[in-house]
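Before the break, one more example. Copy the sequence into your notebook; we will annotate it together after we see the structure.
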Amino acid sequence: MFFRYWQGIRCADNIIARKFPSLIVLSGILCGILPGIIFPDMPVFWRAVCVFAVIVLSFIFISSPRYILVLSLFSVTALIIADINSGISADNYSNYLSRPNCGAIIKGVLKDSSIVSRNLSWLPKPSFVKLEISGIKYGENEDWKKVTGKLYVKLPEASSNPGYDNEIILKGEFMEIDKPPFKGAFDFGKYLELRKIYRIFYASECEVLKAPRTLESSIMNVRDFALVKVTDGIKSPENKRLLTTMFFGCRQGLDWKDRQTFIMSGTIHIFSVSGLHVGILALILFWAFRFLPFRARYLLVPFLILIYTVTTGMQPPAVRALLMISLWSFSRAFLHYTSPLNVVFASASLLLLWNPFYIMDIGFQYSFVTVAFLILSYNHVREWTACISERLKWTPSLYVSRGDYTVSRLGKYVFLSVFSCLIAWLASTGISASYQGLYVPFAVPANILISPLIPLVFIVAMLKLLLIPFGIFADFAGSLIDYLFYLIDGICRVCAYLGTDCHIVRPPLFSVLIFYSALLVFVVSKRKLFFIASLALISFVIIFWHLREDFASPEIFLFHGGRSQELSVLICDPASDKAFLVNAPSSETCRNIANLLSLKGIDRIDTLIFCGAKKDFCAGAKYLMSCSGVNRIIVPGNFSRSPYARDMVDDAYSSGILLEYAKETGKEEKGWSYSSYKLKALSKNGEFSIEYNDFNLNISLIITDGGNGMRRVKITVPGTEPKTVEFENRNNIIMKSFCVNEKKT
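Here is what the structure looks like once it is written out:
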């Protein structure tokens, strides 16, 4: 019996390999890079041993020597490429730094697609731009040292907006990227490392040396000219920014509030240039060039899409779409049929050979996983869609009215849209839950409603470019684009509001693997039993994800360090979906707090209170209000003396957040007090004390300034011994946690 099963596996492998030859290539590449991804500290020798073990196993399960040779060749190739990419070249700038954080003068060339011309004054400068560094020195009189590498640069606020491919000299400071303060937090350093960026440079002075006219800069100038003409006539500056972000991925076009709205509605993907944008553009181009011969049309369109992809910064989702359309177009041009799924595998293989660490990029995973499941579900969708027009197939055409035909076509379109959005949502749900702790069911209706509007925006924008000589038509097109964006924004805001409670505790890896295995059976199975069983398993896993937070214990988290040395205290109770926060010292601290809240499955901060009104206590409050959301803010009694506190109160008032004001206790005591049923707070002579009572939580906090740059907090929970924690001033953010129920830190 075992021999029969073994022979069956070998036969099945050969059938799959013949149908999807690129899958063998992709499997070999994954065998070469996954050991280093899963075990980053594993030496190259042991990675090679893992690859050799896979090759030996391939002789057992694959009967064709040709497929074994291909698998072995690409496994070894991927292992070598991954090893080369994991190292830092000898002439990289990071090897020439005197210390991790140091001042320097650098020169290089700007290579960031978010940089736009000065004519687009309504689009703000990007916070950080990508620079290819070519020289470094530490003093004005020193000679330049030739170096290579990429880094992110924070340009001075007062500097003019340089252009793409401009060579510039910057004076400022290198900053090492901090590691995340807790496991599961977003690792910005790792994100940049995947892109070969190892430092951030904060520039205080900027000088443009020259602005050469290169092919890339010329393409960017054409893009900026097109943006000026397309946005001319659009009245809303916000809609202009949204259009720029949607078409070309200029990240500065979305502020934090809008970004959170689109994330919570599950529609943020429309602002990440990917298969949706490239596919719409390809359809428009194929239609526009339909007068050309068949082969010329399918050879021309990929070249035009390549130019468009260059203007978006060649991000992995856009490159994936470019590769897929190019491979499909070339196959069509030379009358060679290839499976769409085989094209997906080939595109993934090419990208991973270029940079093996793309596999850890969330955009890469979203793009390929979603497209793969959409293609796998195509046969089911086609069969179910055919059922809608089944009656018309048996009706003589003479007796089929135009109304019946229209209703049938409309029904097919609606069913196709609903089912495609459902599959795409399910395919992305596991990734969203793993990385962001998000479960957004209202993404399905949101995407169904906006899916016909996005192509309309593209069509109207392209018509507007063609109608430049006719100003009256261009103005009408601008007003129409305004209206379309108002519709998109309104739909997304409603769905984001309906899906407010969308955070879950980040699921364990095994449950995500079970979820995707069940989803795979769901989209490919033709047997009713397997179909129902897989659907039941998917439902069970989603319910399991939601129930996990009911068994989580309340915890206290202490954050300290970074740009502000004031202490921040976060009390989380996932079971009641509540969080209480003391101080929002800086935006970098609040980013970690927001990340931790999503990790714990908490959507909003119930109460935010401050020890004082200075900038060091409340500088990150605006970020929290736009990112995580706050229900209530306790305003310090002396807030009117601080411009930062006044701005924070104004923003909270305009956002509809409940504001409650503490009472000043007197000039001699230099403090204030607040008292309610669940919360008592007192600030007096530099000491801040809180008594917090909510449901099963009864916590007392005393925060004091220990002198010499030291902060001290005393935590008292009934039934446990008081816990005192001290913090010294530090540049990086650290976090300490205290589990309320388990009596341990």
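Residues 228-376+441-498 form one domain. The chain has 25 helices and 20 strands. Try to locate both features in your own notes.
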